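#random but structural
TW: two for the price of one
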Amino acid sequence: MSSESPDVPDDVADRVKNVRVDEEMEQSYIDYAMSVIAGRALPDVRDGLKPVHRRILYAMHESGVTSGSSHRKSSNIVGDTMGDYHPHGDSPIYDALVRMAQDFSMRYPLVDGQGNFGSVDGDPAAAMRYTEARMAPIAEELLTDIEKDTVDFQANYDDRLTEPTVLPSAFPNLLVNGSSGIAVGMSTNVPPHNLGEVIDATVHLIDNPDCTVLDLMDHVKGPDFPTAANIVGRSDVKQAYQTGRGRVRMRAEYHVESDGRKDSIVITELPYQQNKSKLVERIAEDVKDGKLEGITDLRDESDRNGVRVVIDLKQKANTDVVENRLLESHLEKTFSVINLALVDGEPKVLTLKEMLAEYVSHRKAVVRRRSEHDLAEAEDRAHILEGRLKALENADEVVDLIQDAEDRDDAKEVLKSAFDFSQEQADHIVRMQLGSLTSMEAAEIESEYDDVTARIERLEEILGSEQELLDVIKDELQEIKSEYADERRTSFIEDTGTVDDEDLIPEEDVVVVLTEDDYIKRVPAETFDPQHRGGKGIIGTDLKDGDRVSTVFTASTHDYLLCFTNQGQVYQLKTYQIPEMSRTARGTSAVNLLDLDDGEEVTAIVNTDDFEDEEYLTMVTRNGTAKRTPATEYESVLSTGIIGISLGDDDELVDVEVTDGSMDLVIGTEHGMTIRFDEAEVRSTGRATKGVNGVKLRDGDAVAGLVAASEDDDRALLTVTENGYGKRTHLTEYRPQSRYGFGLVDIKTEDRNGDVVSIDTVAADDNLVVMSEAGQIIRMPVDEISTVGRNTKGVKIMQVESGDEVAGVDVYSPTETDDADDEAEDE
């Protein structure tokens, strides 16, 4: 076997180039990026089209698939486009064709589609072999005069054919139909507009080149979306037009219908590019998850006549609140305006005026080139007609000369010599038929010559005067407007700012019930009529088997609450966020409102509206630990909660009070003991601390509650036991002591009373709400309960059935409305 190496040219080494990888990668990436930017993703400012759209329309034009022809299979159009102009696969070509046919995507569709071209629900179009298409009439306006050398052409991808680099575009398509696309490192998102408004603005700019964007906005009010709906406010539109970038808020069009028993919110127009079926799904999911309340049914009744999504509300639902929450989550969408387009092949962000100015510049070039083309043709025709007229004047001689000539070429030379005809004139005369020598034919030639001469004068006038050229552009724009313009679809509504649910919900006192299985609800306090002491009350909630009431408290619907749990966590909650339900309803899962762990229960509620400077949150645990922390440390509460207190083993948080640093603390125990001491004895510490000993507990005893009182407090201490007994005792009977003592006897806890459940301070005009674990509830005036001394048994407050116990007690001062209702009932 030969060991000789193959022949290698001597200059191979000289042809090898050493390059740095980083430099080669950088240059290659730049080349790729520019190819995407200029060749695929961004529209040309002049005709508003990307290459794929331009090639589809030009392929249809070349194939004769115009608005006057019959529809042709989409697969045929896609095949012609791909084979001749756009070799990037059939799928992106068909996707572009489909979008140009969708009346919910294009303000003025450029393709007239026949078959399934998708829907506003996001349904895809049928396969291209099933659909048919042809150009829409307005699309032909983009191609008008393309055969008159109005635009530049370039070779197609395989040099077989040529294609236009831009279309003549008889109207500002970029603004009228908008465009969207993502390039490398940049994106465009031009909204669609009303054709009539855009043309009016273009004409205004032609007449007033020094006008401002605000002047143009007198004509272009704002984007005009094919799906109509509303634009919220005008300031965002103004910014987008003045800078080329902005965020426009779009809002669905809806109204409220009522059948006399309940209301329904009916959506009739959707924000641009919003998927209707996904919107309905998201609303349904939010209703299911408890994020949207007051909705009983959701139906999509849309048909070919338009959108109609019906949202039925509960009879007692607050329609304004449901509307507000729908707007927050579903019925508004933001359109990010990015007026990025190719200007002379380079991407540029444009203001409204710059976009129109670039279009006017393009049309000036188109009309000038068209006029030059038409002038050349007219001059050629006039030249021919002049020859024919001269031939008619000398018809006999012309005929004789042609008869005497040996052949056609000889005849042409003889005519040129005899009458000074040009080569073109001689060619035409030789081809003339004898019938054209009649007097009628002569008159027609003279008439045509006059018309051509007049046309030449007009074209020279246009080419010789900038103003005449602009007048032609304006006249043609006005013709387009009269043919295709329609009424504006998208309306403007004033931006009234953010409306909180709180602004829409009447302020009233409510009773909030929370169960061990984490069901929660609120019920208007006026639902429970005041009763006399010792009654059984009424059903306050429907408990499932094995569940029991764990917490009951009163609040205003506008209160912002801090919810402290037995495990020392703190959650923030707005009262109106708790679903309002009937007194016999079970409630909704608290998981939707509070991120509670297994076994975690709310044991104390603090109204943050009560916070003032230099206030503290003072806490007490089941094992007698007291802690005081500045209230400001609880101002920012995460949705997952924050640590309120660090608890020891087998300890739980029992109660929390707001104090100001100068108050006395009264701790009550389950076995009826109380201790009162100065809060200053509990030094202030941070959130995640344990605190200090507050009360000594005998075996089996535990803390039941905490109250704060001032030195001259004229209120009474209300104590309620698990068997429904209680009493009022003036705070003056609880002398101050030092922290960490056993305290004094408050109430006798024997078999009749049971352990203490709650202690609280009350005034004579307060109301008391007591609820049992089984769900019975009673509301009564505090003055129904006798005021007695310490170390007494108290009186029956609520009739508690065997096996049931008092679960919670809360005190509140009725609003004026409640007082008026009570007085009316007494009358």
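TW: number two ↓
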Amino acid sequence: MKQLILLITVLGMTATSALAARMCPATGRVVDEQGAAVEYATVVLLKGTEQVAGMATDGEGRFRLEVPTGDYTLSIQYLGYDPLKQTVHVEQENDLGDFVMHGSSTEIEGVVVKAQLVRREADRFVVDVANAPAAAGRDGVELLERAPGVWVDSDKISVNGRTGTKVYVNDRELKLEPEQLLTYIRSLRAEEIQKIEVIPTTGADYDADTAGGVIRITLKKRRENGLNGSLSLNGSASAMGRNLTPGGNINIHSGRFDLYASGWGSFADNRSVSNETTRYTSGDAALTSHSNLKSRVNNGGGTLGALYEIAPHHSIGAEFEYWHSDSDDPTDTQSDFTQGDRLTRTQTRFGAGDYGDNLSATFNYVWKVDTLGSTLKLLADYTSRRNASGNDNFSRITSPAATRDSTYRDRTTSRYTIASATLALDKKFSPRWTLKAGAKFTRNDMDNDALYEYLHGADWVRNDRQSFSIDYTENIAAAYGIVAANLGRWSLVAGLRGEYTHTTGKQVGQDYFSLFPNANISYSLSKDGAYSLIAQYARTISRPSFWSLSPQRSQISDYTYQTGNPALKPSYTHDASLTFVLKHKYTLTAGLTVETDEIQQTILPDADDPDLLCVAWVNYDAMTSYYLTASLPFQLTRWWQLNVNAMAMRHAQRVTADDPVSRQNLYSLYASTTFTLPANFYIDLSYRYQSRVELGNCWVEPQQMLHAGIKKRFGERFTLSFNVRNLTEERQHVGARGEGFVRRVDMLQFWNSRQYRIGLTWNFKSGKAFRKKSVEAGSAEDRSRL
């Protein structure tokens, strides 16, 4: 009997020890005094004075922490609320319930939070900006430059260097030109940004043509009544021109009602200089050309949106956006064409002008189905864009035989409409399991009319070979389903999207159905998740942009023009990768991309006059890339931060099925460092290098850029910045080699000239700070093709 009692005691102690060592999930929810969720509050569990787990609450105020069974101190903190501390007992699968935070009349100072600032989830990186002391005083672009895998250069933002990356702020895509997009994001300050999510490979809930990844920026949100906003003015100047970009926004919250408005402008007066040399290999002909483009651009627009909470779980919203663009781009060129000892000189003035109007409207209805955070959304979107362009050209051609003048012009009108309806369900069965499902229908219409004429005597004569009228209609019906699971150290997000596309109006109508699977599997190598492995796969489609389908002819120089291709086909991509995460933030990714019918530009001799070169859109036959990327954010000291993003790629491509496969090695490096000085001064340095890039028969020579800047914050309201971009002022060198020609062009433009920039931002508020809500759009991916 004594032996039996001893055996039971030993087994009991063993079982108790095993249970205590087992990781148990502790879940709960953080709410304010009115019962509304407190999003992105920092929640940590302490064992004595040591933190054993921590995270930020989600959009419903929920959290999930995994620790061994036992007693802990739960600490919850968020700016604008009194800190909350409470003793809790954690055991197997227990719900700690709701924790109520009380508003504070003063801001919290000196709060030290050890929660991980960068964490990796199954399908994305999450940068917890709100709890990053080093982020204070930075703007949105500076924060993106330090996010894992994000590349920011002079004219675009991308994930791992890919084209087509989309940027969202509060669930709404920023549908702006690259420079305008960067200007807007620079107006955002770290103090108003809650988190940044980087999604390298999108899931089935995004349109299948979201192949370049997604960056989501979430602004802070509070429930208190009041208003806030900002005004900014940024100017830049160089030897190649100047640019002025004012902007402002205001956000109002009162009870159940949210109203927000913003406006922006971009006024530029720039020029571009290029020198071209072309050698014709089939004879003794050669071409030298010099072009000088002067561009005046006036862009501006605004957004007005409102959201009303009908009931605690039901809300409706509407948003209207309008912008206008107007540009005048005259170009003077002089070209010398020599053949033997015969010289023909062409002097031309290309008088180009362009204007456009864009109007978008969005409506949504959101039903919060349960307290777990499940939602049902109905989204309706409409976008209308009208563009008109014209060219009035005059050429004087002088040859040994004679001198003749040529006057010609063109007028093009383009109209685009996008209408879509989306139904999306996000069902959370438990903190572990989530199901997403939805359906979407999109109708895209494009109508292009172009008239080309030349002056014959005193009469204008229509050029029937170049004039055209094209109508293009595209109908896309889609349905998707996604399952997400959090199973201890394993996390899974897997989905399938089906899209049926029917097009009419092109040279040949198309009907096709495609399936787009995706999967993201994550395994934590350590209990705290600091080390993990993530495997990802997705199949996506890249549909041609509307303007690349238009056969409009745009003269670049006397002997070079650009045109679209109505016969372009969509391309399909398979992307697989494996990522190793160290200490939550250092990442190393190895991947493979296989693309068929890749959409790219190439340079070809004109079919009627081989001395002319045409820059045309075509479908490449196949492309395969093996890549390795690294993201290394170092905090060297409290006042010195260094961020390094690097990529190496082995790229293989075949332009046509009969061509041999060409291979090349590509390298990219982006490094930025920030020094935090006393009195709220900051010094920023950044460097970017891109090796030689070859696409088809075209190439771009290696490029490097060096930027430096200084910033001063005056309290919490004003920020003054000054920086110098492209200190080395390197020209861009591009070339092409084709049947019968070799071409090289050297260009100096506003973006790659040495620029001096100065900016001033004023943030204002009345009442308590909060994050504005915004109306979610369902056609964001479709609009990007405009």
